Amino acid sequence: MRDGRLDGGDVMLVGKRFYIGLSGRTDADGVAAFESLVSRYGYTVVAVPVGAGLHLKSVVNALGDDLLLVSEALAAHPAFAGYRRIAIPAADEYAGNTLRVNGALITPAGYPRVQDAIATLGLPLHVIDTSEFRKMDGGLTCLSLRF
Fold first, then answer.
1. Are 71 and 137 contained in the same domain?
2. Predicted confidence (pLDDT) per residue in 44-82, tens digit
3. The domain containing residue 14 runs over which residues?
4. What is the C-alpha to C-alpha distance for residues 82 and 65, in angstroms, rounded to an integer?
5. Last residue of a domain, which of 11, 32, 58?
6. Are strands 17-22 and 11-14 parallel, antiparallel or unpaired?
7. Mean confidence (pLDDT) of the chain
8. Do 66 and 116 fall within a single domain?
9. Are residues 27 and 74 located together in one domain of the fold?
């Protein structure tokens, strides 16, 4: 097995597919090592370069099995072609760090355009003040442990 780095914030599971961001915190060797572990259980892995942002889930999150909330910069990425996408304007990119937990959405406060777009999904919506966490590049995915 190779040495490598993999940050949990770069790992997004949708169905049986893991999307893993190649970022300043996750490298190709980390992705390869992870893939060697999960592929035997029927999971596939897709590496997605993260040009800007802390990690992948800073700019894209699954709101359902076929729906992604994604930054404008990644909305047209071929890896996400099979999904419905709600694209987030660059000015609202931080709101891409929205979670779906137990059939409800949790989203950061201060992004009314994103809140309006995801409110149309009909799921309970919880708007949380994350401004103090944002000062240190923290977001909802950084503050959660879900399994």
1. yes
2. 999 999 876 678 988 899 998 899 999 998 899 999 999
3. 1-58
4. 11
5. 58
6. antiparallel
7. 89
8. yes
9. no
Q: Is the pTM of this model over 0.70?
A: yes
Which residue type occupies 142?
C
Quote the Cα angle for 9-10-15, to 5°: 100
Instruction: Write the DSSP symbol of residue 141.
Output: T
122 and 66 both lie in a single domain: yes
55 is catalytic: yes
Exposure class string for 10-38: b at 16+ Cβ within 10 A, else e: bbbebeeebbbbbbebbbeebbbbbbeee
Q: What is the pLDDT of residue 132?
A: 85
**41 lies in the same domain as 1:** yes
Residue 143's pLDDT is what?
66
Separation CA 69–CA 64 (nearest Å): 10
User: Is there a contact between 17 and 38 (Cβ–Cβ < 8 Å)?
Assistant: no
Do 73 and 144 share a domain, yes or no?
yes
Chain segment 2-46, per-residue pLDDT in tens: 679 998 889 999 999 999 999 888 999 999 999 999 999 999 999
Q: Which of 14, 63, 114, 142 is catalytic?
A: 142
Q: Residues 31, 34, 55, 59: which is the catalytic one?
A: 55
